[in-house]
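Researcher: Structure prediction, please.
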Amino acid sequence: MKNIKSISILSILVIMFVGCGSSSVKKEEPQPIAKVKITTSKLSYFEEENITITFKNMLGNKHDWIGIYSKGSSNDFKSILRRKDTNGSKNGKFIFEGIQEAGAYEARAFFKDSLVLESSISFKILSNAVLYEDAENNLSTGWRQILGHYKPLRVPHGFKSKGALVLTPEWIDDYTNIAEYHLDMNNSVQQILEMDMGGLKDYRLPNLPNFGYIQHHSVGVYVHTTKGERAMLWDSFFNHGKVKPFKKGRWLNYPSPVEHVRGYKEVGGLDIDKWVHFRVDVEKELQKLEPDNKLLSIDTFFATGGFLDNLKLSKE
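Model: Predicted structure follows.
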């Protein structure tokens, strides 16, 4: 019995020793492979604007690469729009040449010159300009006649184009023009308002006796700003009186960068065949009267008349 007890005690000691020894040995866990990550510096870029893409955790092969594709296209080499090899860098940044066409795109990461996708990110290319009216074939269906008796009208032979827009001023006395027309823009991207003003020597407004003549009229935009809604108006009538920009309630009023009147030389009107280009940076104009305000969106274009063509919002 004594021997059996000794053997049992010895066995227990051995088991304890082995158990303790095995618990002190740490097993090496396999290190997880870091996922490839690519990011763009912005969610959207304008046409021809350089595109900045940052990459992390690439394999480190000199033929790892980043490509730009149209969103939804295959990974095939023939679908690549832009490509740069990492030259062995695992982390880094590329600046790609801008893309000329607005739309949806993706940056994609690959290893070893393969077409096996490791990571991707989507971004957009935005148009530098949005054209709202050129009257080439028909007028925009978005025009609204708010006041006055004459509807928006398309006539042939605009500014170097097939057509132009006619909005008829309707003066009922020396101080009151009852015409008003609206066109929604709903644009929070572009902030430069542009249009051509003419210049229709062969057209006679229905309420005037002379061809090519058009009286004073205003153009402007309703906007959202960080300080609320504003109405911004430009009129060359202010130019004639050397009136500086002024504010009245939510209305911000400005001299126009160009002359609006055609004929009527006694009040500074231009020749009836003269086209000029109207262009204002809406946010900069806003800050002339409200320096600490910022533009959020251009919601609606309005006019109280005009021979107009190529109405658009642009970036720069």
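Model: Helices lie at 2-23, 236-240, 282-289.
Researcher: Thanks, that helps.
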